[in-house]
Design a protein that fits this description.
seven-stranded antiparallel β-sheet; Leucine-rich repeat, LRR (right-handed beta-alpha superhelix); nucleus; repeat; 18-stranded mixed β-sheet; alpha/beta; 19 helices; PH-domain like
Length: 1179
């Protein structure tokens, strides 16, 4: 509507009003604005006195008696005309051309939704042709110049949408718009309706959903043309009696109200009602006033109620019934007209239908407690779809399997041990037998079910397959075959040749050792092949004949030779991870269709730079990351390692992202996350990139897990910005950290989630769910909250038709129905905790907690375990994006990597002893199974980027040619035995360079005594040291040591002079250091007095009594970068220590003095003091 307030033409011309010559010509200001001609006096044009002539639908005519003149006429019975005389031909033609366009316009529909309007724009009232006006999602007011009380001016208005305006009170003047046929007033907070609504006699559709109505006025019965009345999600406790008067209505739409009793007697009195929608009420019981049958109701929807028994046998004309997600134990219906029945997710043990439903075509009894298929279902002659999965069936009647009408049979997740032998040909097309106890399939299955196109027999105990043909040529039409997780051997491969039309074949997690080349050669129609989890050593070279193959999944085998798949013209996805590949033979040109190549987990595979260059055009290349320079922090991975798998399925984009950081917060914890955007890939990637950094900031602000986790989600929600307005994402975040609250536990696990992503902990072989599913179907409390806030829940159980989730990050336009508030739980980790599984909605829809845990408990490699979970989900019918992360836990003393040296390791609340420290052994590099991979991609997928946190130069630099053996290392401590955090100042290690003329140690001249451990070159002092982990010589005036110290202290410690300072960045942290006796002198120094209590760059405050020597405390130390994209820092040339030639002798002399000081004789008993603790500094 922006063009309506724009002036098209204007000028001062001679104007005459009317068609006759009674009026004189006068000079006027003429403006063609929008669709109107505005004529005003030249003097009074600024005062608002003007004549407005709507031109839409009117006409423009030439005035023949006057040169260069036009007659502008409006439309309608009382049309007005203005004659305008122009001075030149050019002006005449310009006005005629522009006005003709305006006249030809027909503005009948105006959409002003979501514009934050408080009133209708004034220029709209000049157009009388508006028939439909949409003002949805605004802030319309009643008493304003363009408010709702002025809408009656639209004389032709037929449709008006005022939903979501929070009006509170019904605009009574709307009842004066007698032309209205459609009125939408949903979600406005109305508590009652005025009686004047009965004046809208032409009204045909009235929508009042999402209000607080409890009754309807009797005057509503005057609307005899009303054919649709929506009063869903209000507060009605019974069906309004006015329905009896509205004879044009054929539906009762009252979903989401407060009905507790289903009174069939009321419905019997409404002979015009055919459809009844009572979803999401509080129905518990049913009342039948008489035995008279109801012959007019054909469709009933009772989903998501609280019914335990339902008897609708009196509804003789019932054709369709929805009663899912109740608590039904028994169901009784009339079968005269029954066509479809949906009764899943109940507790049904018996379903009675009489007589036999001869018209029944679809029956869904899944997720119940049925032990056998009802007899009447076996006798139904027209049934085409039967779903009895997730029940307690032990056998399948032969009458069902041999039905001449059945097209689709779902028998999965039962206890069926065998199927009856087929004798006659059947028209069955889809057969699902997964998760049963089958050891064999009927021998005549493929020969009698010639129309069978889909067969899923995964998760059984099949050892062989029946033959597909009896003669020379097979007539099988089978296209999709899923046989994952069985006991099949190589002997089943020849049988597959009998299915020449196979397009998708899944044989994962069986006992295959070879795949004969001659057999694979005959499967020319193959498009997707999954052979993962077997014992294959090679893929036959005849796979090159499968010209239509676009997906090959063969991870977790023993394949050593790269298959010849790069010759296939349509290959897109190849997964050969977790094998024994050593080299790859690459053709001259790769297929342009190749998008994803996964080679992770092949520990012996070495790719040359030339190979990587050839692979550079692949969208996603996943290979093992080369081992990084070992640092102390890498030892933390001893306690946990992870593997990640993400598969797009049959969708063309991946909307799942994951976060994995084995070394988080300087190596003292770990963070893992899963994000599912459903249909959008933007938000999961944004959350993957930002959420770890947000968590790190919040952890530094609060130690309360509920506080910092909740703040992490809220801040991440805010950081989504405009992208989070209409898009949303489920999010799951798991944080492992040292447990200071529970002395019996070493680590605690804090889990927070919104949406449908879930985390499950395996404790002692049993699954322990740690998250909560926030969806309308699985969380009644959340569904009730959304109902109370008057959201509109559509029939597919989605909030406003957008999402089934009630809590998400993003989707801010659906507030307050969709919230970012997470569910938070904390669990102390014990030695019984084996692994942690993170998965998105698609994974947990197809795998139970128990099956997922049992599937990966004994898999050694976490990457292979995650791959296995995704493969199982796809083989069980998942066609959506699926993501799984498996975190192996090794929480126990056997996982400790501390340098004990005869020391007693402290508990979580103890202090470490102060003794001499030896060099630590070299930490092991992470294995490839940790799931860390690099991607060479034009669109770098962050889920594959290494999560290794960058190290500072002080962690990685070598000694620059000096003898580092002379410098002892501190005791390396693992995260299992951290030093106590109470009273300790924690700081990230850094490299600091101090100018000599600004150093606070008082050494500003070359002739001063140099500080021990610091090398000067005459112009500046260069220090590369963990600046918060040095210890002074003597102890004085320190707080007393706690009695619970696990190791004895020296006599001086016993007098109360021990204070601890802990390193935070690595596993070497945890060394308790006493404060120097020079502390009091340091406080008196004017150069240091300003430092005490100063806020440091990482947000910490140095207490007055906790400060160190100024050469050890830097006020502006560069912070270590953390986050998912943080890469390890590289050694810069200027960071390397170079000794000038003129100082070489001086350096050697200092090193000699340093070595001699270590060989000083032991002092006498009475003079013995605490020995100096020295640290490894990269000088």
């Amino acid at each position: 509507m922006d063009h309506l307030d724009r002036i098209l033409l204007s000028g001062i011309y001679n104007v005459r009003k009317g068609k006759t010559q009674l009026h004189k010509w006068a000079e006027r200001l003429v403006v063609l604005c929008g669709t109107c001609l505005i004529v005003s006096s030249v003097k009074d044009c600024q005062t608002g006195k003007m004549h407005i002539l709507p031109l839409v639908g009117g006409k423009i005519e030439e005035v023949k008696r006057r040169q260069y003149s036009l007659a502008f006429s409006s439309a309608g019975a009382q049309a007005q005309t203005y004659h305008v005389s122009f001075e030149t031909l050019a002006e005449y033609q310009r006005w005629q051309r522009q006005a003709s366009k305006v006249v030809s316009q027909r503005i009948s529909t105006v959409d002003l939704s979501c514009y934050s309007l408080e009133e209708v724009p004034e220029h709209l009232f000049y157009s009388q042709d508006i028939t439909y006006l949409n003002l949805r999602h605004n802030f319309m007011q009643l008493e304003r110049p363009g408010g709702l009380d002025t809408l009656y001016k639209f004389s032709q208005l037929k449709g008006l949408n005022l939903s979501h305006n929070k009006l509170g009170l019904f605009p009574i003047l709307l009842c004066e718009i007698s032309t209205l046929t459609e009125l939408n007033l949903s979600c406005n907070g109305f508590r009652d309706l005025p009686s004047q609504i009965g004046n809208l006699l032409n009204l045909q559709t009235l929508c009042l959903d999402g209000n607080f109505l409890t009754t309807l006025p009797e005057e509503l019965g005057n609307l005899q043309q009303l054919s649709s009345l929506g009063i869903s999600f209000n507060n009605f406790s019974q069906i309004p009696e006015v329905y009896e008067k509205l004879t044009m209505l054929d539906k009762v739409v009252m979903a989401g109200n407060c009905l507790e009793v289903l009174n069939l007697g009321v419905l019997n009195r409404m002979n015009h009602i055919k459809h009844v929608d009572l979803r999401m009420n509080h129905l518990k019981t049913m009342v039948i006033e008489n035995l008279e049958g109801n012959k007019h109701i054909t469709h009933v929807d009772l989903r998501d109620n609280r019914l335990t028994d339902l008897d609708l046998s009196s509804l003789c004309s019932l054709e369709q019934l929805h009663c899912e997600r109740n608590q039904l134990r028994e169901l009784t219906l009339s079968g005269f007209s029954l066509r479809t029945l949906y009764a899943s997710s109940n507790r049904l043990t018996a379903v009675n239908v009489y007589p036999v439903p001869s018209l029944l075509t679809s029956l869904d009894l899944s997720r119940n407690l049925l032990e056998c298929v009802p007899d009447w279902a076996c006798e139904a002659k027209k049934i085409e779809v039967l779903d009895v999965s997730y029940n307690l069936l032990t056998e399948v009647p032969i009458r069902i399997l041999s039905s001449l009408s059945l097209r689709k049979l779902m028998l999965g997740h039962n206890h069926v041990q065998n199927l009856p032998t087929l004798v006659e040909h059947i028209p069955l097309e889809v057969l699902d037998l997964q998760h049963n106890a089958l050891t064999r399939l009927p021998d005549t299955l493929f020969s009698k079910a010639l129309n069978l196109r889909y067969l899923n027999a995964s998760a059984n105990s099949l050892e062989s397959l029946p033959s597909a043909c009896t003669g020379e040529e097979s007539l099988s039409m089978l296209q999709l075959l899923y046989l994952t997780n069985n006991l099949l051997t190589d002997q089943c491969i020849p049988v597959l040749v009998g299915h020449p039309h196979l397009r998708i074949l899944h044989l994962a997690n069986n006992q295959l050792q070879t795949f004969p080349a001659s057999k694979l050669n005959k499967l020319e129609q193959l498009e997707e092949l999954n052979l993962s989890g077997n014992k294959l050593k090679t893929i036959p070279t005849t796979i090159a004949n499968c010209k239509r193959l676009h997906t090959l999944v063969a991870h977790s085998n023993n394949i050593s030779i790269f298959p010849e798949i790069l010759q296939l013209p349509q290959i897109q996805f190849v997964d050969l991870s977790c094998n024994d590949l050593t080299e790859i033979l690459i053709p001259e040109a790769l297929p342009a269709t190749l998008q994803d190549l996964d080679l992770t987990g092949n520990t012996n595979l070495v790719l040359e730079h030339k190979t990587l260059d050839i692979f550079s055009h692949i969208t996603t290349l996943k290979i093992d990351q080369k081992p990084l320079p070992t640092t102390d922090s890498t030892v933390t991975s001893t306690f946990w390692s992870h593997g990640l798998a993400e598969m797009a399925g049959q969708r063309n984009k991946l909307c799942v992202s994951a976060l994995a950081m084995d070394n988080f917060a300087e190596g003292v914890g770990a963070v893992y996350g899963m994000f599912d955007g459903d249909r959008n890939e933007e938000l999961p990637r944004l959350l993957q990139c930002t959420m770890a950094d947000v968590l790190l900031e919040e952890v530094q602000q609060s130690t309360n897990d509920t506080v910092f986790m909740a703040n992490t989600f809220l801040v991440s929600h805010r950081k989504l910005g405009m992208a989070g307005q209409k898009l949303g994402s489920s999010a799951l975040l798991c944080y492992i950290r040292p447990d200071t609250a529970d002395p019996a536990s070493s680590f605690s696990l804090t889990v927070a989630n919104v949406g449908t992503c879930q985390a499950v902990l395996c404790r002692g072989g049993k699954p322990v769910p740690l998250s909560k599913v926030f969806s309308l179907e699985q969380d009644p409390e959340e569904a009730q909250r959304v109902k109370d806030q008057k959201a509109i829940i559509t029939e597919d159980n989605k909030v406003n038709g957008v999402t089934c989730c009630t809590r998400m990050l993003g989707c801010t336009y659906l507030y307050p129905w969709i919230l970012p508030k997470p569910h938070i739980s904390s669990t102390p980790l014990t030695i019984q905790d084996e692994l942690l599984i993170l998965g998105n909605k698609a994974l947990w829809e197809h795998l139970s907690y128990t099956e997922a845990v049992n599937a990966v408990r004994h898999v050694q490699d976490p990457l292979a375990a995650a791959k296995k979970l995704c493969t199982l989900a796809q083989s069980y019918g998942c066609q959506d994006n699926v993501g799984a992360m498996v975190v192996y836990l090794n929480i126990g003393e056997e996982g400790c990597t501390c340098e004990m040296n005869g020391l007693t390791l402290p508990g979580p609340v103890g202090f470490a002893s102060t003794t001499s420290i030896k060099d630590a052994p070299k930490p092991a590099t992470p294995s490839s199974s940790s799931g860390i991979a690099s991607e060479f991609s034009s669109e770098m997928s962050t889920s594959e980027v290494s999560s290794e946190v960058g190290s500072t130069a002080s962690d990685e630099h070598n000694a620059g040619g000096l003898d580092t053996a002379l410098l002892p290392r501190p005791e390396r401590r693992c995260s299992l035995h951290p030093t106590p955090t109470s009273g300790l100042f924690q700081r990230q290690p850094s490299c600091a360079t101090f100018s000599s003329n600004q150093s606070d140690n008082g050494l500003d001249r070359d002739d001063d005594q140099p500080v021990e451990g610091v090398i000067t070159n005459g112009s500046k002092v260069e220090v590369e040291v963990d600046i918060h982990c040095c210890r002074g010589r003597d102890l004085e005036n320190s707080p007393p040591l706690r009695e619970s110290s696990p190791t004895p202290c020296s006599e001086e410690h016993a007098r109360g002079s021990c204070f601890g300072i802990r390193r935070q960045n690595s596993v070497n942290s945890g060394i308790v250091l006493p404060i120097s006796k020079d502390r009091m002198e340091l406080q008196k120094s004017p150069s240091t007095s300003c430092l005490y209590g100063k806020k440091l760059s990482n947000g910490s405050i140095v207490p007055l009594e906790d400060s160190l020597n100024l050469i050890e405390v830097a006020t502006e130390v560069p912070k270590r970068k953390t986050g998912y994209f943080a890469a390890p820092t590289q050694m810069e040339p200027e960071d390397q220590f170079v000794v000038p030639r003129d100082l070489e002798e001086e350096v050697k002399e200092q090193m000699k003095q340093h070595q001699d000081s270590r060989l000083e004789p032991e002092p006498h008993e009475e003079d013995r003091t605490e020995p100096l603790e020295e640290f490894d500094t990269a000088l």
